[in-house]
Write a structure and sequence with these properties.
The structure is a single chain. This protein is α+β, with helices and mostly antiparallel strands. It contains 17 helices and 26 strands. Strand 17 and strand 18 form a beta hairpin. Helix 6 packs across helix 7 and helix 7 runs antiparallel to helix 8.
């Protein structure tokens, strides 16, 4: 729903802003650079620091005034803890930081970005309460302003920010201290709330989030630290190229795998997300009422609610979309393999990057498209060109003459997946209910395109497709494929295809072509249920031929009972099929046809290709045809 690349780029930059904001929320403790004077402290006291400036990696923190209240630390103690050039690692130093509160009226961070850009974040009224052993019980900020300079200029704001149980030592270890990615998960904060996030680029892209809440954010230490990994990924993705050298590609894949495997959080929820674009091209607006992501456990996945999209004459709404059973384990494993410079970048290797997804559900989706001028012309009998201008109408088109937009509706949809094989699900089920649209939208489509001629104005369909691959049996089972329409009927297919081994998932042509030699048809079940289509078809055909419907029906009965068996070889199976079709035409209801290969291995392509007549194929099948 975000078609333009500038919008995607803006979202990536906004995501980086949120990521770095998470990492520097503990910056209040790191930015208290003390004056040079030494002072003993044997009792609780307040220490005021001025003109604070602390470089931490690529980021520079600055504060004109810092007040450390209710602390037993002397100025000398604070100097030792916060000295930027100390040989002692940050984590043990921060573990000694204790105070009743730390307050900073204005805290500024400056971070260089890609392409020579500079991100400046100015936090207001920063207060850390109950600081013990480097942990902050509660960190609050009245708000913040963001400014990005460089090739892609932008600005934004944060409303009130509140974080609880913030571990400064863990924050520093994860952000800047390298590790092997195998250590324990270190929690950075227990909970965070951010209100009224906005970001606008000079290009015309604007992003707004009414509220954000996260819980249990943390992770493991990785080579280069999280800051280094993010910087490397940013540079690498900006410079990605098909001709990228193998060692550079390997490092990029390894870094992505390290970071994806290291980050851990319980949940993240956004409210009131809006993305808009003005300027070049048609204005665009995307809105999401609620976005919730659960990172771990059986409920892992993402849910979006109250989604709306508008651009030009296209409008779309979706009440709810949910991804469940999401796991990045296959993606991380594939990245690990691609980290080897000698690994071949094949289609299979790229397919394995697909994350595991248990299922996708959709509820109440609607899409509105501009009316087809040609269809409107057919309805009104005028030219499909520009309509005549009407005085007083700025667009030259009176509202009463404008054709209604085309509307496509989906009441509910569900797609479930089985385990992955080389990035492809080995089983899947698609279930769509209430697919509704004007019959004119299928004009020109084979079979469906004739429905408007039978008196259908709006179509309402349901679709089910359920299939699975059995590796041991080397079979693909089409357990069900059912298409049903309101006041039309239904068509149901089920069947089994043999000779389908692991080569089914190969993307290179020679291996896939082997299926033409090995695949066999074992069974096919067909059910046709009439709920109104046949009567409409018969009436329309009778009118076109100037016959009475019953006269035409008798002609069809004779054609099916005698003509069909003759075409199929006049075998017992052919006569059974013809008799069932004749009964169906006489009294349209439910027609069932079951066919099973007499050979347990099934019928191969050669059996079909070398057969001289349809009867030769039917002789190799057990066929049952009946009408209910």
């Amino acid at each position: 729903m975000i078609p333009h690349r500038t919008v995607r780029a803006s979202l990536l930059r906004a995501a980086r802003l949120c990521f770095y904001a998470n990492l520097i929320l503990g910056g209040v403790g790191l930015s208290a650079v003390p004056a040079t004077a030494q002072e003993a402290a044997s009792a609780v006291q307040d220490v005021v620091l001025v003109d604070v400036a602390l470089p931490l990696g690529d980021t520079l923190f600055k504060a004109a005034r810092v007040t450390v209240s209710g602390t037993r630390l002397s100025r000398g103690d604070l100097t030792a803890i916060l000295a930027p050039d100390s040989a002692e690692p940050w984590a043990p130093r921060l573990a000694r930081l204790e105070a009743a509160s730390i307050s900073i009226p204005v805290l500024v961070s400056e971070h260089p970005g890609p392409g020579g850009s500079l991100q400046t974040v100015t936090y207001r009224e920063v207060t850390a309460r109950d600081v013990r052993a480097g942990r902050i019980a509660e960190l609050t900020m009245a708000g913040a302003g963001v400014a990005v300079s460089g090739a892609q200029k932008g600005s934004g704001t944060y409303g009130r920010i509140v974080a609880s149980d913030l571990d400064l030592a863990a924050l520093v270890r994860l952000s800047s201290e390298p590790g092997d990615g195998k250590g324990p998960v270190q929690r950075v904060y227990a909970a965070i709330r951010v209100a009224d996030v906005t970001y606008t680029e000079d290009s015309g892209v604007a992003i707004r989030i009414a509220g954000l809440e996260g819980r249990d954010f943390g992770g493991r230490q990785i080579p280069g630290g999280w800051n280094g990994a993010m910087a490397a990924l940013t540079r690498g993705l900006d410079a990605v190229d098909p001709e990228m050298k193998a060692d550079a590609r390997g490092r990029l894949a390894a870094t992505a795998a390290d970071l994806a495997d290291a980050v851990s959080f319980g949940s993240l929820e956004l409210h009131g997300l809006a993305i808009s674009r003005t300027g070049a091209g048609a204005p665009m607006l995307v809105e999401v009422g609620r976005l919730a992501h659960v990172g771990t456990g059986a409920e892992a996945g993402t849910t979006l609610e109250a989604i709306a999209f508008a651009q030009g004459g296209v409008k779309a709404r979706l009440a709810r979309a949910a991804l469940t059973g999401v796991s990045l384990s296959p993606t991380i494993a594939a990245l690990r393999r691609l980290a080897d410079p000698n690994a071949a970048v094949t289609d299979e290797a790229l397919r394995r990057l697909t994350p595991a997804i248990g299922g996708l559900t959709l509820q109440d989706m609607s899409i509105e498209l501009p009316a087809d001028p040609a269809a409107e012309a057919r309805q009104t009998g005028r030219s499909a060109g520009k309509p005549p201008a009407v005085a007083g109408d700025p667009l030259g088109v009176p509202a009463s003459q404008g054709a209604a937009p085309l509307r496509l509706v989906l009441r509910s949809g569900a797609l479930t997946f089985g385990p992955l094989r080389d990035g492809v699900p080995t089983a899947s089920r698609l279930d769509l209910s209430g697919v509704t649209f004007p019959a004119t939208m299928v004009a020109g489509v084979p079979v469906l395109g004739a429905l408007p001629d039978y008196g259908y104005a709006d179509l309402d369909f349901n679709l089910v497709v359920d299939s699975a691959w059995d590796e041991d049996k080397r079979e693909v089972a089409l357990r069900e494929m059912t298409l049903s329409g309101r006041d039309i009927g239904s068509l149901r297919l089920a069947g089994t295809i043999g000779g389908m081994g692991p080569e089914l998932f190969a993307s290179h042509i020679p291996a896939a072509s082997l299926l033409m030699l090995t695949a066999t048809a074992k069974a096919l079940d067909l059910t046709v249920q009439n709920t109104g289509l046949f009567e409409r078809f018969l009436a329309a055909q009778a009118k076109a031929l100037s016959l009475k419907p019953e006269e035409l029906r008798q002609e069809y009965v004779a054609a099916t009972q005698f003509g069909v068996p003759a075409m199929l070889g006049n075998s017992p199976a052919a006569r059974a099929i013809g008799s069932a079709l004749g009964q169906f035409v006489t009294k349209p209801g439910r027609l069932t046809l079951n066919a099973k290969a007499k050979n347990a291995a099934g019928l191969g392509f050669a059996d079909f290709g070398l057969a001289r007549t349809p009867g030769a194929v039917l002789d190799k099948l057990d066929v049952d045809a009946r009408v209910e």
